[in-house]
Design a protein that fits this description.
4 strands; 2 domains; alpha+beta; 191 residues; 52% helix; Gyrase A, domain 2; elongated
């Protein structure tokens, strides 16, 4: 029996091949355009939805702000709040001189008397002190060499040593200039 070739073997011409590739390219390009148009439409709807959401939130904020503006006594509360903030700023910047005096007292001999005392915000102290003898003057100055005291008081300078008569006692009087630790002026935790 003779064999019949049902499949036709045809050679496609370059024109036919070009038309088929062009047709597929056009179809793919059209599909991309359709998808791009659909994505663009989706973006428009999403942007409109977000804008509506933003408008709703802005209206809520405006409504809440109007409610806040209608609070009775708002100006009084605002005034008190400003006064409280000013008071807190004043207290925060206030030096606590009462913390300096116990630290100085713990470094001072019991036999010493302060005739004058002047402390400045720049961290210096000027004292006029009297003690019973020159040995007490030496002890007075040696105390500041101890580690527990020289962390708070340092750069000690003694000037104008002399004798003075108080009643029937002869005392040694001298002036002292020193620096103090500024942290002593901060409030202590217990206050």
């Amino acid at each position: 029996m003779p064999q019949i070739n049902l499949l036709q073997q045809q050679k496609k011409s370059p024109d036919e091949l070009w038309r088929s590739v062009s047709a597929w390219s056009v179809k793919i390009l059209l599909m991309a355009l359709v998808l791009l148009a659909a994505y663009y439409i989706y973006l428009i709807f999403a942007a409109n939805s977000k804008n509506q959401s933003i408008t709703g939130i802005e209206q809520q904020l405006l409504s809440q702000q109007q409610d806040l503006n209608q609070v009775p006594g708002k100006e009084e509360l605002f005034t008190r709040q400003q006064q409280l903030q000013q008071l807190l700023a004043l207290v925060a910047g206030h030096p606590y001189w009462s913390n300096l005096l116990p630290a100085l007292a713990s470094a001072t001999l019991k036999t010493a008397n302060f005739i004058s005392f002047q402390a400045m915000n720049d961290g210096t102290i000027t004292l006029s002190v009297s003690v019973p003898s020159t040995q007490d003057l030496d002890k007075f100055l040696q105390v500041f060499d101890l580690p527990e005291f020289n962390q708070n008081f340092y750069d000690i300078k003694v000037g104008s040593i002399g004798k003075t008569q108080v009643g029937n006692q002869l005392l040694t009087q001298f002036n002292v200039n020193m620096s103090y630790n500024p942290n002593l002026l901060k409030p202590s935790i217990s206050q």
